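User: I'll paste a sequence; please echo it back and then give the predicted structure.

Assistant: Echoing your sequence first, then the prediction.
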Amino acid sequence: MTHVKFSHRPFEKSFNNLMDDLFSELPVLYKNGINQLNGFAPVNIKEKEKGYQVEVVAPGFEKNDFKVNIEQDTLTISAEKKEEAKNENEKQIRKEYSYRSFKRSFTIDEKIDASGIEAKYVNGVLTLNLPKKEQVKTSAQEITIQ
């Protein structure tokens, strides 16, 4: 015979689980905030018919602030914003944002034509187009039997 215990307080257990779930998520929220402070830039990657498109969200930068390069099989996107000179006659009352440098690296494979990569920065989004290499299709040939 198996002994089974029943709890007659279902609401207490659900409330405790709710609180445990809430507090277990706090380190994740804290970690995400730290990533943004350390120079994390969100990226979207889309596959299209003729290639891939990488979108990096980086508002407030200018196109001269970006550096995009490929070394071996690694695509690196970085940006650095120079701090503006402070005016000594002004008093800063509130400062809620600042520009942070970031660096993201991606491994690219042999399917991508590295010489054809194009980059464009419009309205706070850096868009990279990575074309796929043309696949050489062998034509069908008939082999005669001797």
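The longest strand covers residues 51-57. The chain has two domains: 10-40, 42-83+99-134.
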